[in-house]
Design brief:
2 domains; nine-stranded mixed beta sheet; Urease, subunit C, domain 1; alpha/beta; five-stranded parallel beta sheet; TIM Barrel
Length: about 450
């Protein structure tokens, strides 16, 4: 049993917010009450601002015996207590776009270290992309990922591939993969170029009632990927990636989605034109969704010049007008989700080669919440409730997950964070460090992450 006292609760689903006590038992929220109305037991509280150990626990503390600090553990009828004074208590964050590089590239990240980074960032649910090696195009590979995910302490879900081997030619056995636990489908990392394959895939996911997510970049318009065609490509002396690479495929897939009724996600949107296309398409179909990354609503192509390969990603950082269109899209709901596209790489892959040879992508799980607070809430574009909707409730709804809300009888998946404290980015739980935000001072810090009623992260 766990009691969270004195926190400022935000439930994006109902819009209810205010200071509350929350009592948790057996992985569920047992009671939500006004502060002081829940019996709090006799044990001294853990303070989010006190000296507690940083953990990414893969399980629970044993009942009885010692608690590891020399104190006698209490009986199961007396709650542990977290004093969340000065903190926000919100639904655990949900990231529907992460790369854990497992199987196949575990020198970059694996499911265990990726989940530890997620827990440190406040995430209780993540959805893995399928561009592993082997790709998640068979039941065996999918089962490996899901079983390893069960060892982490958080909810690790996985998409399966749309096409066999990510070759864009032949659809996978989508029904078998769905039955084995795939929560959606994507070939993220390699765009689907054949419109007939896309249509057939949309028709299948519509039947299965699962989402399909699209990486929208037509290679026809790309000379060197990861670098915007403009100031950044001129700096590096190549053609870069033109915005038409994204615009053309977004336009195609929105049209097909409206025709088929498929539930689609336009991933990591980067251009003002794509934002407007989604805005107009949403007037015609309710199954259209879009996501933005923290790096796309924070940075522009100048960062690619300043940070080199540490700010190289697909699609690339673009111009200030694009960044602001993404911010406005998040503010008005055109873009319903924030997703990190957490993409770990080794430091040598990013630093020891020319930018045109370096892989694209940056890590993002441990900076996402702070960037949302710093760039969107503190600057007045979103309320804190809006931010929690984009980072928890809306992603959960896309995948129809039992997450993204706080209610009696609901899942005890929560994040407790201080929305005012300043933090300097670094000391990652991820294996990787490929981020342009290292050393930045941001606002907002995760104090606790609670999944299934268990503390899976607490700040040191």
């Amino acid at each position: 049993m766990l009691l969270i006292k004195n926190g400022y609760m935000i439930d994006p689903e109902t819009g209810i917010e205010g200071k509350k006590d929350i009592l948790i038992d057996e992985g569920k929220i047992l009671k939500i009450a006004e502060c002081g109305a829940v019996l709090c037991g006799k044990m001294p509280p853990h303070s989010p601002h006190g000296d507690v150990n940083e953990t990414a626990q893969n399980g629970t503390d044993d009942e009885g015996g010692s608690d590891g600090e020399g104190n006698q553990a209490k009986s199961s009828c007396e709650p542990d207590i977290i004093d969340a004074e000065g903190c926000v208590v919100a639904p655990g964050l949900v990231d529907v776009h992460v790369h854990f590089r497992d199987p196949g590239f575990t020198q970059k990240e694996d499911i265990l270290t990726g989940a530890a980074a997620a827990a440190k960032g406040g995430f209780t649910t993540v959805v893995m992309m399928a561009n592993t090696k082997p790709a998640i195009d068979t039941v065996d590979t999918l089962t490996y990922c899901l079983e390893k995910g069960k060892q982490t302490g958080i909810h690790v879900k996985a998409c399966a591939n749309v096409t066999c081997g990510m070759k864009g030619k032949e659809l996978t056995d989508m029904k078998a993969l769905a039955n084995a636990g795939a929560v959606g489908f994507t070939d993220d990392g390699i765009p689907l170029r054949d419109p007939e394959i896309v249509r057939a895939a949309m028709e299948q996911v519509a039947e299965l009632d699962l989402p399909i997510s699209f990486h929208e970049e037509d290679p026809t318009y790309i000379d060197k990927n990861g670098i915007n065609h403009g100031k950044a490509s001129e700096f590096y002396g190549n053609g870069g990636s033109d915005r038409m690479a994204e615009i053309s495929m977004v336009e195609r897939d929105l049209k097909l989605a409206i025709e088929t009724g498929a539930r689609i996600d336009i991933q990591h949107i980067s251009s003002k034109e794509a934002v407007q296309l989604v805005r107009e398409a949403k007037k015609l179909g309710s199954n259209i969704h879009a996501e933005a990354t923290p790096h796309h609503f924070t940075l522009t192509e100048e960062a690619c010049i300043e940070y080199g390969a540490f700010a190289k990603m697909n699609p690339p950082l673009r111009e200030e007008a694009d960044r602001m269109a993404i911010v406005q899209g998040l503010a008005d709901g055109t873009i319903d989700m924030i997703a990190t596209d957490h993409a770990p790489h080794t430091t040598s892959e990013k630093k020891d080669v020319p930018i045109t040879s370096a892989p694209s992508g940056i890590i993002g799980l441990e900076t996402s919440l702070s960037l949302g607070i710093t760039e969107l809430v503190d600057k007045g574009y979103l309320t804190m409730r809006d931010l929690m909707t984009r980072m928890s409730t809306a992603p959960a709804k896309l995948y129809k997950l039992d997450a993204g809300y706080i209610a009696e009888g609901g899942p005890a998946d929560l994040v407790i964070f201080d929305p005012k404290v300043k933090v300097v980015v670094g000391n990652y739980a991820s294996k990787a460090e490929n981020s342009p935000f290292t050393g930045w001072e941001l606002t907002g810090r995760v104090e606790y992450t609670i999944c299934d009623g268990k503390v899976v992260y607490r700040r040191k």
